[in-house]
Amino acid sequence: MIVGDSKPLEEILEMIQDKEKVLVLGCRGCVTVCNVGGEKEVGILATMLRIARKKAGLAPTVDERTIERQCDPEYIEELAEVAEGYDAIISIACGVGPQFMSERYPKVPVYPGINTTFIGGALEHGVWSERCQSCGNCLVHNFGGLCPIARCSKSIMNGPCGGSANKKCEISPDVDCIWHLIVEKMAGMGRLKELERVWPVKNWITSRDGGPRKRVREDLKQ
Amino acid sequence: MRLQYPTNIKIIQLPCSGRVDILHMLKSFEDGADGVYVAGCMEGDCHFLTGNFKARRKVNYLKGVLAALGIEPERVEMFNMSSAEGPRFAQVAREFTAKIKELGPSPVKKAKAA
Amino acid sequence: MLKKVTRVFDENKRFSPEYDEKSTQEIAADMVIKAIGQRTDLSFLGDKSPLEVSPRGTIVADQLTMATNLPGVFAGGDVVTGPWIAIGAVAAGREAAISIDRFFKGEDLAAGREKMKLLPEDEQDYNPIPKNIEQAPRAHMDFRGAEDRRHDFAQFELGLTPEQVAAEGERCLNCGICCECYQCVEVCKAKAPAHDQVAKDLNLNVGSVILAPGFDPFDPSIFETYSYSKHPNVLTSMEFERVLSASGPYQGHLQRPSDGAEPKKIAWLQCVGSRDINHCDNGYCSAVCCMYAIKEAVIAKEHSHEPLDTAIFYMDMRTYGKDFEKYYDRAREEHGVRFIRSRVHTIDPIDGERLRIEYATEDGEAKAEQFDMVVLSIGLQTGPEAIETAKRLDIDLTKYHFTETSSFAPVGTNRPGIFACGSFAGPKDIPQAVMEASAAAGIASIDLAESRGTLTKEVVYPLEKDISGQSPRVGVFVCNCGINIGGIVDVPAVRDYASTLPYVAFVDDNLFTCSQDTQAKIKNAIEEHNLNRVVVASCSPRTHEPLFQETIREAGLNKYLFEMANIRDQDSWVHQGEPEKATAKAKDLVRMAVAKAALVEPLHQVDLDLTKAAVVIGGGVAGMNAALNLADSGYPVHLVEKTDTLGGNARFLLNTWKGEPIAPYVEDLAAKVQNHAGINLHLNSQLTHAKGFVGNFVSTIKTPQGDLSVEHGVAVLATGGHESKPSEYLYGQNQAVVTSLEFDAELKGDPDLPKKMEAVAFVQCVGSREPERPYCSRLCCTHSVESAIKVKENNPEAQVYILYRDVRTYGVREDLYKKAREHGVLFIRYKLEQKPEVAANGQRLTVNAIDHVLGRPVTFDVDRLVLAAAIEPNQVKELAEAFKTPLNAEGFFLEAHMKLRPVDFASEGLYLAGLAHFPKPMDEAIAQANAAAGRALTVLAKDQIRVGGVVATVDPSKCSVCLTCVRTCPYGVPKIKDGAAFIEVASCYGCGACAAECPGKAITLQHFTDAQILAKEKAAFN
Question: Which of B44, B94, C48, C1005 would you call most buried, defined as having the most Cβ atoms within 10 angstroms of its Cβ?
Fold first, then answer.
């Protein structure tokens, strides 16, 4: 899933400081699953905004709504009748949300309420970790199922580097050296020899470095 | 035991302190509460096993939210007490009220009055 | 001048002196003291009163009717009799009243009347003094000496000493007799006192009787040297519990009784009234005091503001219960409770408030310390009333006054159908007492199986009204609760205020809303005003909600269409000094309740059928007993045993601690199980999967014949444990080193084996009470002591040593310890950090240890070294996963509550028994098995289980399948089913944790919905 983090309240307040009618818009997709943008968080953020505005002596209108997904136009369309009645919409979805919203409702300023952080998964309730960098060319099977692109600080294909010490990456004692784990895992599977293969420099063209990406499936297109 | 405590404490009954939602507490501040506290069972004695631990975590989270809003985090607290501890209930009610009185009315209300 | 007295009494023997005025005598004196009497003062009559007055100055009245010479005027009391007793005046008043009544009615005053006289003894209206009460003389106060008294008029009575006052107080018989003044009836607005109620003898036909009279705490007054009755700072442990209690005399503040100062040092003395046949006859160990003393010390430290020093003086630290040893370790290592192995002889009060204790350290050094308080850890004993009850019922008691029971029927007595549980059947702690209580219920239900349900009555309710689509019409009933609420809160004002609230269609106030006539009024109001919600503003929902719910059900409303405002416990009682604010708060509370009431919806509980069958896992003694108890109570049982034999560990045991041979019992038990038509036995089988919930489990049993799917309503897990294999003391390397069970097997094979031996040593705590297994295995001390006695009885010449850390022959097992010492068994204590050393010496072994008395190393040779190896639970990971039952750190099953629910799992319908719970001797395993059966029967005896009501429900359209509920439910109830979370109604406990966590707000806790809670919250402010 796409994992995000709530924007600091201060930042959101600054975005909407001169806006009277505000809508907080949630998404039932990834951000609900990672407990940052579902109906509950919409309620919390909206209440926080109302409190902040009350505190500032303003008469606030902060409405709440949560739609199925903000990354599909049909769901965005559900707001057609109300969207333009707002002076501002705060989208608490991944970065797709504010863009789809702005594209559909160009007259209403749409602000992001979430910082989209990474593609990852839950290690336990309340803990998420990055697993994928969407490089466009998946090779994890060569590394014992562990991705050196997303999980090595330097995304190196032939590791570990000299910064690996005590299973940890030199950038922080909280970050595992994925290459240490890859070697351990492959050794455990008796496949250490496979790591002797020297990987050529990765072609990043499939990744973001090749420019914004778009995917078309002719068979599905109507 | 009929131990006396200030009249401004109003109790909302829940089946377990684990039922309390951050939203419930936050809305109270929006609606004009000067302070909110959760009274849960003693740690290790939750009738529903772990509800009181969940409540404490939520209260701690809410303290951060209040701080971000410029509201004193001490306005929300979690207390553990057993149903046999009437004196502790009254004492907490008195002490919490005294603390809130010291802090004065909630900044949310002050602005409203202004 | 004195004149001669010619007469003292008159002809009626009344004091009426006459004098000879002429015969006088003169005496010179410095001071004259007049001894004055009393006489009537009739001056109010005036000079010309026609009322006849006697020469003595009293009014003349008829002795029978109290009539004077003037019709309509009556007289009585001292004015008639002269000075006399008060009770005589009371009698005269009553007689006069009767006469006045007759006078007004125009009747004859005297006709048919007799002078009042004492009733014959058997007609007198007072409770006779019980015969067993000893006569205690009245206390007599001292007088000042005559010489001293000559000089002044100061009081010559010196008063009673404080001790005499206390003794006088003790003379009160507390007879509690009522003088029938009816003042209680007068003040009670509910007219609750019923003076016509008297004790009645009831004859009940019952199938069984369970005795649970409990214990009396030992009274330590007889220990002269402990100063208990003399010094306020010497307390019993029970009294100290009160000191620590928030509702105790000091509101939970730790303080010294003598002066209220916070103590800095407290000592506990163990075994007061236990393990003692010198001061009392309680030779047994009271089984609970070690643990409660540690608890009290730890809590006292937590309560103390200053660092508190606590010292426990003990003989053996007996923390043999589940997780007790860990508590002992923490008390010692983390809380710094001092443990001093010494029996204290004397507590010396010293100057000021303190107490001095002299004791000998383990090294034999004499020491003395001063304490602010000393707590006597008093033992448990059967009270005289319980002994009396036993006599009346012909129940045999032991010499210690506990019920005489067999190890194989631990809650039985000598009379079939009469059972005993708790400390009446021997001293024990709470979990064991709770187990025995359930066990007694379980066993009793066998005899009652046929008559089950024959005396129950069913309540019939009217058809529930359909309120769907109706706008809320709320009725508010405000209660005065006599003066409890009405005395502080302005109830009519609250009632009138309620009528202004939205949706309120009817208001009323009542003196007692809970009274029967008010229930009728509420029902009428519902009918007349077409109410569809009811709010009662009164007391606590904890006590009264069910009553009012019942009332509205009787009026055809769903019981959830009800809300309470607690304006008593939360208002009038706790704001007594602020009536105006209390009234305002009552209005707030009513407004909050009405706000929620407007949103409450009818909820429908559903009755599910259940499978009246049980699965019992484990064919040991615990499993077999549970299976038999259930099958004998009329329910089919699947008994699953993983091996090919029934009996478990019991097959390897010789005797119980009471000496009963185990083999015949186990054979008989196994035969009963095998031949029981209601028991489906699966040998060589295991339960691999389980799904469902209480009443409706479906499990897969892997049998040699293939997988079997079994439907059942409950399951008892009695998977047992085993003796661990030691890794020390040359075990496995030397033939002469054996475990307790192996030694039992040797003795079974050759009962005369001890005759062939010169010396045997037992080593205790082998693998127990160590970091690796931080628990006491509970049964090994008794087992080794028992084996040691066996050796000595067979060969008195043999040297028998027991190397121990603490001898934990708890309860009445203490007698065995005493017997072993009498047989000459040598007990040598060792410390964990100084374990005995063992070396091979030809066919024999040489043991090296430190003698704790001499403090010197001792060396001796033995023919056998018996290791009391730790008891471990059997591996049950898969079973635990199948039923989602938790295990503790050591792999034992974890019950729902260590003290209060010792045989239940947190999940309903699942129970545990035997060694899978914790090491225990056979009698306790049997009790726990019967307890598990008893608990399981509470489910099986029902025809249906009612589910629903306050439970969580999922709106699948809002569910993001995020797993938050699955991960946060404390009971593991939510599952993902058909693309959304699913919460099984029957399994949900209704705590609402999932509703509070759900990020999509897809989960609602019925009756405590967000909308309802927030409406109440919002109403609190305006």
Answer: C1005
Residues C892-902 have pLDDT tens digits of 999 988 899 99
CA separation, residue C327 to residues A13, B50, B80, C320, C429 (Å) = 52, 21, 22, 11, 15
In a domain, C164, yes or no: no
Please check whether residues A55 and A157 belong to one and the same domain: no
Q: Provide the chain B residues 43-102 that lie in CB contact (below 8 A) with chain A.
A: 65, 68-71
What does the pLDDT average to over C377-406? 96
- Nearest CA to CA, how far is A174 from chain C (Å)? 25
Which residue of B13, B27, B29 to mutate against C (max C Cβ within 10 Å)?
A: B13
The answer to whether residue C126 is domain-embedded is no
User: Residue C522 maps to which CATH number?
Assistant: 3.40.50
> Same domain, yes or no, for C489 and C590?
yes
Amino acid at C907: S
C-beta of residue C672 within 8 angstroms of C-beta of residue C621: no
On whether ipTM exceeds 0.90, the answer is yes
Task: Supply the pLDDT for residue C147.
Answer: 87
Label residues C39-49 b or e (16+ Cβ within 10 Å = b). Answer: ebeeeeeeeee
Assess C588–B contact: CB distance below 8 Å, yes or no: yes
Chain B, nearest residue to C590 by Cα: B10
Angstrom distance (rounded) from CA A79 to CA A83: 5
Report the residue of C1001, C1009, C1018 to disrupt the A interface, i.e. the one with the largest count of A CBs within 10 Å: C1001
CB-nearest partner of A35 from C961, C964, C1001: C964
Other beta carbons within 10 angstroms of residue C433's beta carbon come to 21
Q: Does A8 sit within 8 Å of B65, measured CB to CB?
A: no
Q: Which residues of A touch C999 (CB under 8 A)?
A: 32-33, 35-36, 38-41
What are the b/e assignments for C260-296, b being 16+ CB within 10 Å?
eeebbbbbbbbbbbbbbeeebebbbbbbbbbbbbbbb
Give residue C327's pLDDT.
95
The region, left, alpha or beta by phi > 0 then psi within -120 to 50, assigned to residue C11 is alpha
- CB contacts of C968 in chain B (<8 Å) are 54
- Is C303 in the same domain as C316? yes
Residue C1013 corresponds to which tokens in the numbers above? 């809670």
Q: Across the interface, which of B30, B111, B112 has its CB nearest the CB of A47?
A: B30
Q: Is residue A70 part of a domain?
A: yes
> Residue C30 — very low, low, confident or very high, per pLDDT cuts 50/70/90?
confident
Asked if the structure places residue A165 within a domain, the reply is: yes
User: With bands split at pLDDT 50, 70 and 90, how would you rate the model's confidence at C127?
Assistant: low
Which of A2, A24, A27, A35 is the mutation pick for testing C, counting most C CBs within 10 A?
Answer: A35
CATH of the domain at A90: 3.40.50.2300
Where in the sequence is the domain holding A147, given as residue range(s)? 136-202
Total number of domains in chain C: 7
At residue C77, the pLDDT reads 94
Residues C578, C620 share a domain: no
Number of neighbouring beta carbons within 10 Å of residue C382: 24
CB-based contact, C575 to chain B, within 8 Å? yes
Answer with the one of A64, A83, A118 that is the final residue of a domain: A118
Residues 153-172 on A with a CB inside 8 Å of C are none
Residues C499, C618: one domain? no
What's the CATH number where C613 sits?
A: 3.50.50.60
Clarify whether residues A6 and A98 are in a common domain.
Answer: yes
Question: Which residue, among C605, C603, C565, has the nearest Cα to C586 in the 3D structure?
Answer: C565
Q: Are residues A10 and A104 in the same domain?
A: yes
Least CB–CB distance from B51: residue in C582, C585, C993: C993
The pLDDT confidence band at residue C57, using thresholds 50, 70 and 90, is: confident
Q: How many CB atoms lie within 10 A of CB C87?
A: 8
Q: Is residue C675 part of a domain?
A: yes
- Nearest CA of chain B to the CA of C569: how many Å? 7
Residue A35 shares a structural domain with residue A87: yes
Give the per-residue pLDDT at C527: 96
Query: In this complex, is the C-beta atom of C999 within 8 Å of any C-beta atom belonging to chain B?
Result: no
Domain interval for residue C392 = 384-451
Q: Is residue C999 part of a domain?
A: yes
